[in-house]
Design a protein that fits this description.
With 642 residues, the protein is of the alpha/beta class. It contains 16 helices and 20 strands. The two termini are 44 Å apart.
C-alpha cells in the first residue's frame, strides 16, 4: 500500500536555487546600472553638504536667468590614457557642474559640447583656433571655451584642481564677461606699495604685479592714481587706496571730493605693513616718492570725519584667532579669522570660511550722522591693542602679558549714506618743499580761478559707499595665494576672494560676489584657541607675581653688591650666597608651576580633540546603525500588522 504524499511540500532542487541566485545577481546589476544612468542623465539631485557645495549658487542662477542670447561652450578635454588617474574624479565634477549650467539656462541658450584636442585631429585644430593649448609643465588639456557675439573667454581648470570650489566662479565669470562684451569699468589704485609691480632697477630688480592686481585686470580697466594726486579723475568708476603711507591732506581732500560725487572708495590702512617693511629703502628715491617706505598708514582727516578713530601705532592681538606659524609657534598678531569673526549675512563675506590679517589695526567709534555702518570682519572679545614694537616679539611674551579688553573691535566695515566733507574750509594748502639748489628755480604755475567750488556734501538723491579695512598686507601674494609657477596661483584662504568681492560689490557685478565667496573650507580651531587662552589666563597672574619676586631678588642682590667692600669685589658675601640660593629656588618653583599649568591646558585640549575624533570615528557609524535598526523595526511592525 502506497503512502499518499500529495500534501507534502515539493522538494527544492539545487537548480532552482542557482536560478534564483542568478536572477538576484542580474537584478542587483540592473538596479546599479539604473542608478548610474539616472544619476548621469536625469536632472534630479539632492545636495546634503553643509554649504550646498555641489549645487549652483543663487548668483549663478541669476546670471543664467538673464541669458537672452545663445552662448556656446566647448569643453576641450584630453581623454583616454592621456588623462592622469588623479584628475579623473575632478574632471567628472566639472562635467557634472557643466550639465547643471545647461539644465538651469532657459530656452537652451547655453549649450556645451565636449571635444578631444588631440594633436593632428579636427579637435586639435578647433582648440588652436580657440586659443587653447597645453600649459607649461602640463601634458593634458582641460579647458572650457565660452563664446558669445564674437567675444571669447577660456577657463583652464588644471590650475584650479586643488581649489575645485572655484570651478563655478570661473565658469560664471566667463559667461558674464562674454555677455557684457568689452565694456569694462575703470578702477583707480592709489598705493605706497609696489602693488602694480616695480618700475625699474631702483626697486631692487623687476618685480611682478601682485596676483590681486592681475585678477582685477581681468574684469576691470585698472589705472594708477599717484599718491600726490590733487584730484581723482571723474571717469573712474571706483577707487582703491591701499596703504597710503605719508598721504597728504591735499590727497585726502581729493578722495573726499571723489566720495561726495557718489563714487565708491575702498581704503585699506595699516599700523604695521610687513610688505612696506620688506621694500623699505631710505636711499631709494622712487620709494620716497611713493610714500617713503613708511610702515604705517592712516587717513585721519577722513576717518575722524566719519566718526571713527584709528591708532596707527597700535596692533590688535587676538588670542582666539591666533595663527600657528613655522617652528610650532603661535602668533596672536597673525589673525586667522573665521566663524563669528566674519559676517555671514553680508554678500561680501558670506561663504568666506577664513581670512588672514597680519599686524592689523582696529577701528573704534560710531558712524557719523547720516551714515550706516555694516561690520564685515571683527575680532573676538579676547583681544588687546599692543604697540607695533611689542607685536614683533618672537617669543610668547604677548600671551604672558595679555590683558583682554573684553570688547570686540572692527577690522573691516562698509559705510553708506550721505557723506559730508572733512574739509569745510575748502582745499588745504600744499606743504612748501625746500628748494633744491642743484636744480634751476621753476616758475610756479598760476592758480586756476575757474575751478568749481569744493563740495560740502553729497547732492540730493545721491548716496556714497566707503569700505574701510584695518590691514593692507592681506592682499599680498605671500598671505593670500600659493604660486605654482610664474603665472599660476591658487588662493589658500579667503583673502583674494574678499578683496575681489569688495570691488565687485561697489563697482562690478554683485552676482559674482556670492559665487566667489565659496572659498577655503578650512575651519579655524577657535574652540581650541579659547581653551588655550583660558589656561593662559589662569597662570598669568601667578607668573606675574613670580616674576615680581624674581625682580625683587635681583634688586636685593644689586643692593648687597653695592654695599660690599670694594677690595672683595669678586667674592660673594654669605648674605649674597643665601639670596642667590633663594632666587634659584623661586625660579625653579616658578618654572615648575608654569609647566604644570601648561600640562593642564594640554590635557584639556587633548580631551576636546579626543571627543571630536570619537564622534567622527565612532559616533557617526553608530548613528547610521541606529537609523538602520529603526527603519527595520518600522518595516517589521508594518509587515506584522498585515
Amino acid at each position: 500500500m502506497s503512502k499518499d504524499t500529495s500534501t507534502d511540500p515539493a522538494p527544492v532542487h539545487h537548480s532552482h536555487t542557482r536560478l534564483f541566485s542568478a536572477l538576484g545577481v542580474v537584478a542587483v546589476a540592473l538596479v546599479a546600472a539604473g542608478v548610474v544612468y539616472l544619476s548621469r542623465n536625469v536632472p534630479i539631485q539632492k545636495d546634503f553638504t553643509e554649504n550646498k557645495f555641489y549645487s549652483l549658487t543663487d548668483g549663478t542662477r541669476e546670471i543664467l536667468k538673464g541669458i537672452d542670447t545663445p552662448v556656446k561652450g566647448t569643453f576641450f578635454l584630453s581623454e583616454g590614457k592621456d588623462l592622469p588617474p588623479a584628475l579623473i574624479g575632478k574632471v567628472r565634477d566639472v562635467e557634472s557642474l557643466l550639465r547643471q549650467y545647461e539644465q538651469k539656462t532657459p530656452k537652451g541658450f547655453f549649450k556645451i559640447r565636449k571635444v578631444n584636442p588631440a594633436p593632428d585631429t579636427e579637435g586639435g585644430e578647433q582648440a588652436a583656433l580657440a586659443g587653447v593649448g597645453q600649459q607649461p609643465g602640463e601634458e593634458v588639456i582641460a579647458t572650457l571655451s565660452v563664446e558669445c557675439l564674437g567675444k571669447r573667454e577660456n577657463v583652464d581648470f588644471l590650475p584650479l584642481m586643488r581649489r575645485d570650489e572655484q570651478f563655478e566662479y570661473e565658469i560664471s565669470r566667463a559667461i558674464t564677461n562674454v555677455l557684457k562684451g568689452d565694456n569694462k569699468k575703470k578702477i583707480g589704485v592709489m598705493s605706497a606699495l609696489p602693488i602694480m609691480g616695480s618700475m625699474g632697477p631702483m626697486m631692487g630688480g623687476q618685480q611682478r604685479a601682485w596676483v590681486f592686481v592681475n585678477q582685477l585686470k581681468r574684469d576691470y580697466e585698472v589705472k594708477t592714481v599717484e599718491m600726490t594726486a590733487e584730484k581723482i579723475e571723474d571717469d573712474l568708476d571706483g577707487l582703491m587706496v591701499i596703504h597710503p603711507a605719508g598721504i597728504t591732506e591735499v590727497a585726502q581732500f581729493a578722495i573726499d571730493q571723489f566720495i561726495l560725487k557718489g563714487k565708491p572708495v575702498v581704503i585699506m590702512i595699516d599700523p604695521q605693513s610687513l610688505v612696506a617693511k620688506m621694500t623699505q629703502n631710505p636711499q631709494n628715491p622712487q620709494m620716497a616718492m611713493m610714500g617713503g617706505g613708511e610702515t604705517s598708514s592712516s587717513v585721519p582727516k577722513l576717518t575722524s570725519n566719519w566718526g571713527y578713530s584709528f591708532d596707527a601705532t597700535q596692533v590688535v592681538a587676538d588670542m582666539l584667532h591666533k595663527t600657528r606659524l613655522r617652528g610650532d609657534r603661535e602668533s596672536p598678531v597673525f589673525l586667522t579669522l573665521g566663524g563669528d569673526a566674519i559676517n555671514q549675512k553680508d554678500p561680501v563675506t558670506s561663504g568666506l570660511s577664513d581670512s588672514l590679517f597680519v599686524f592689523a589695526g582696529a577701528f573704534t567709534g560710531k558712524a557719523a550722522e547720516g551714515l550706516t555702518e555694516d561690520i564685515l570682519i571683527k575680532t573676538s572679545s579676547k583681544n588687546q591693542m599692543i604697540s607695533t614694537m611689542e607685536a614683533q616679539a618672537q617669543d610668547d611674551s604677548i600671551a604672558q602679558r595679555f590683558k583682554s579688553s573684553d570688547k570686540e573691535k572692527i577690522l573691516a566695515m562698509r559705510l553708506s549714506g550721505k557723506f559730508k566733507t572733512a574739509f569745510p574750509d575748502g582745499k588745504p594748502k600744499k606743504a612748501d618743499t625746500p628748494p633744491d639748489p642743484s636744480k634751476p628755480e621753476e616758475k610756479k604755475p598760476e592758480e586756476k580761478k575757474d575751478e568749481p567750488a569744493p563740495l560740502k556734501e553729497m547732492a540730493e538723491g545721491k548716496s556714497g559707499v566707503v569700505v574701510l579695512v584695518a590691514d593692507s598686507d592681506f592682499l599680498y601674494d605671500n598671505f593670500s595665494v600659493q604660486m605654482l609657477g610664474p603665472n599660476m596661483a591658487i588662493p589658500f584662504n579667503g583673502n583674494l576672494p574678499l578683496g575681489m568681492n569688495i570691488v565687485d560689490q561697489i563697482a562690478g557685478d554683485i552676482r559674482l560676489v556670492q559665487i566667489r565667496s565659496r572659498g577655503s573650507n578650512r575651519k579655524p580651531f577657535t574652540k581650541i584657541n579659547a581653551i588655550e587662552t583660558a589656561a593662559n589666563a589662569k597662570i598669568q597672574d601667578r607668573v606675574a607675581n613670580l616674576q615680581k619676586e624674581m625682580d625683587e631678588a635681583n634688586a636685593k642682590l644689586s643692593q648687597l653688591q653695592a654695599q660690599k667692600d670694594p677690595k672683595q669685589k669678586n667674592f660673594l658675601s654669605p648674605e649674597q650666597q643665601n639670596e642667590i640660593v633663594e632666587f634659584r629656588k623661586k625660579q625653579a618653583d616658578a618654572q615648575r608651576q608654569i609647566r604644570e599649568a601648561r600640562k593642564d591646558a594640554r590635557r584639556d585640549i587633548d580631551a576636546t580633540m579626543a571627543r571630536m575624533k570619537g564622534w567622527n570615528i565612532i559616533g557617526v557609524p553608530i548613528l547610521v546603525a541606529l537609523l538602520g535598526i529603526g527603519v527595520a523595526v518600522v518595516r517589521r511592525t508594518a509587515t506584522s500588522a498585515k
